[in-house]
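Per your request, structure below.
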């Protein structure tokens, strides 16, 4: 005889991030600010948890020689500027790391937006691409921050061609 397995779902977790048109998170929402429907039937919100949107982001930019070709640095600058514009000033943290064959901390982790854009503008691409080593190094630095949400955002134009790590 084959075993029969029965199950049912009594609670479904739904995660929502609410943002304004400019990308900034909306804070202070309560359960009565939401309506939840399942197949057209309104459901009661059994549990509600509002979490801080604080995040620590290590920006990891490829500064290898190939980034100087074309408009790659302009595109990277635009991406960083857009990301900084979506961060909560003073509560989110951001740091700037550049890498070629080695990792360079251009701006330590500080409340956003910090001096990220001015530091970004002062660096010049040079060298080979050690992407894997750079991710590991930025990860070690980011691990020192205890926030619940941490991320490395890597902007690169190519593949690793110089790392010791695989």
């Amino acid at each position: 005889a084959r075993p029969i397995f029965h199950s049912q779902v009594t609670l479904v977790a739904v995660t929502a991030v609410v943002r304004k048109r400019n990308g900034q998170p909306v804070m202070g929402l309560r359960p009565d600010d939401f309506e939840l429907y399942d197949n057209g039937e309104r459901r009661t919100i059994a549990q509600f948890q509002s979490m801080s949107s604080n995040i620590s982001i290590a920006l990891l930019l490829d500064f290898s020689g190939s980034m100087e070709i074309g408009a790659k640095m302009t595109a990277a600058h635009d991406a960083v500027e857009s990301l900084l514009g979506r961060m909560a000033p003073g509560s989110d943290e951001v740091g700037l790391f550049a890498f070629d064959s080695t990792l360079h901390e251009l701006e330590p982790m500080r409340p956003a937006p910090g001096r990220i854009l001015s530091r970004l503008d002062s660096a010049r691409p040079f060298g080979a691409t050690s992407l894997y080593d750079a991710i590991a190094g930025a990860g070690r630095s980011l691990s020192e921050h205890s926030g619940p949400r941490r991320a490395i955002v890597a902007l690169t134009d190519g593949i690793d061609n110089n790392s010791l790590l695989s």
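The chain has three helices and six strands.

Regards,
D.
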